[in-house]
């Protein structure tokens, strides 16, 4: 029988079980697409990354949820680079080119206060209007339309993966949400496979700038992503585009409602009239699991 070893790392935390878990398979080239999907389903994490050789970059990463392949995953990229450095396969204080289905993206590894942090440059931000029913959207989240922020628009955003950005009036609204993910595709009629990312300016930690939650598309096979790097990046870009923010660095917290306490650092720069988004986070090893493929 063919076997697979999956290393579990927690991204955006230095404490096991508090960040966002990612499965990492170092020998990704050994598995077919079908086997990768099977391994991701057996592992059950929001994303499992398969590290492969690349003819165009230093490394190729493929990302699978339990339900389908993703173009990009921020937290799994942070976890993967951290794991490679921890195991001595890559070195800190270098920049690596990572081939993904969202393009070739640079990832910088650097030591800070005795820990390795990974900075990933995301794809240029894109936004599209939301044309769905706000009342139905609110109901699918277990809140009311009055809980949406009246001064900020609900839009689709992407820095590699499309998500619906939903500004909330308060942290209380975020805490009250109980999503019914099965309703999302009918409501997100423009991009039915998009996830939903509500956020508030009110935060749990005083040093944080924004508080987010991330609800998965029902096609992914998961319900909520504890701490999301890519969605945090596009949320910061959203605040520059729609929220009047001129901050060059935002600290985004996520996961507190589900017993996960993670933080993502997002830096925003303007280059040639286009926003450049960089996400920084660390990770920590949790456990190793072996699977036998049928």
TrEMBL record:
What does the record give as the active site? 47
Record's keyword terms, sorted: Isomerase
GO CC list:
cytoplasm
Annotated Gene Ontology MF terms?
Answer: isomerase activity
Bias-annotated ranges (Polar residues): 217-227
Positions of region (Disordered): 203-227
The record's listing under Pfam families reads: PhzC-PhzF
Annotated Basic and acidic residues bias: 203-212
The answer, when asked if Isomerase is one of the entry's keywords, is: yes
UniProt keyword annotation of Isomerase present? yes
Indicate the family of this protein.
Answer: Belongs to the PhzF family.
Q: Please give the name of this protein.
A: PhzF family phenazine biosynthesis isomerase
Q: Which organism is it from?
A: Bacillus velezensis (strain DSM 23117 / BGSC 10A6 / LMG 26770 / FZB42) (Bacillus amyloliquefaciens subsp. plantarum)
């Amino acid at each position: 029988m063919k076997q697979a070893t999956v290393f579990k790392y927690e991204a955006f935390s230095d404490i096991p079980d508090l960040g966002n878990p990612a499965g990492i398979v170092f020998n990704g080239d050994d598995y077919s697409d079908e086997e990768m999907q099977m391994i991701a389903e057996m592992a059950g994490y929001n994303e499992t990354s398969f590290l492969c050789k690349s003819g165009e970059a230093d490394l190729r990463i493929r990302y699978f949820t339990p339900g389908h392949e993703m173009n990009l995953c921020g937290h799994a990229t942070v976890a993967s680079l951290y794991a490679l450095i921890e195991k001595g396969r890559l070195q800190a204080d270098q920049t690596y080119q990572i081939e993904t289905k969202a393009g070739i993206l640079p990832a910088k590894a650097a030591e800070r206060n005795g820990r390795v942090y990974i900075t990933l440059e995301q794809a240029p931000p894109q936004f599209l209007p939301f044309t769905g029913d706000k009342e139905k959207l609110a109901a699918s989240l277990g809140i009311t339309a009055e809980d949406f922020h009246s001064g900020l628009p609900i839009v689709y955003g992407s820095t590699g993966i499309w998500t619906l950005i939903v500004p909330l009036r308060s942290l209380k609204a975020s805490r009250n949400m109980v999503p019914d993910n099965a309703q999302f595709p009918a409501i997100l009629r423009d991009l039915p496979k998009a996830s939903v990312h509500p956020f508030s300016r009110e935060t749990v930690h005083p040093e944080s700038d924004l508080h987010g939650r991330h609800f998965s598309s029902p096609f992914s096979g998961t319900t909520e992503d504890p701490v999301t790097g890519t969605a945090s990046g596009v949320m910061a870009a959203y605040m520059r585009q729609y929220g009047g923010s001129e901050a060059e660095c935002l600290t985004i917290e996520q996961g507190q409602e589900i017993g996960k306490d993670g933080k993502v650092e997002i830096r925003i720069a303007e280059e040639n009239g286009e926003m450049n988004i960089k996400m920084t986070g660390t990770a920590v090893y949790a456990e190793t699991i072996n699977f036998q493929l049928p």
